[in-house]
Amino acid sequence: MADPDESAVRLLLVEYERLKDEQKTRIGLRDNLIYVTLAAMAAVITASLASKGHANLLLLLPPVSTVLGWTYLVNDEKVSAIGRYIRDHLTPDLDPTGKAFGWERTHRSDERRRSRKILQLIVDLGTFCMPATAAVVIYWANGPYHWPFVVVSVVELAVALALACEVVRYADLDVSA
Q: Transmembrane segments in this chain: where (predicted)?
């Protein structure tokens, strides 16, 4: 019969492996969402330019970029949450000395982490929030000014700004050991 402590350690190691698999999958999805967003934006912009005088077609851009941006943000937060769980719960249970899974802490204490995270924040805002805001502003500058489009544009701007606030809030700019 297996030692109860040995069984618990095996179970924790299996949990670690499954969490790392999920983290890897979410990282792949998250990173691919940037490419999907760029392709979708290119399609909307191409359609808008092809139909001259219909700047209202640009109002398709905010839902595309904010939905994909929200999906990106949720996946990014889950990747970070898995890392926190591993650092704060699994590692202490598996190794009270704190030496196991050192990468989970070490990569967060890099002296350039904060500058990288700030640059990533700028990229995230530029990819998911700025195009939506720009599309609304271009629509407002060019029309047509039919009330349904104006109402939609105001709602879209509010959603884009809300997403921007959440992106900033979840930016995780801290450097910790």
A: 33-51, 57-74, 118-141, 147-168
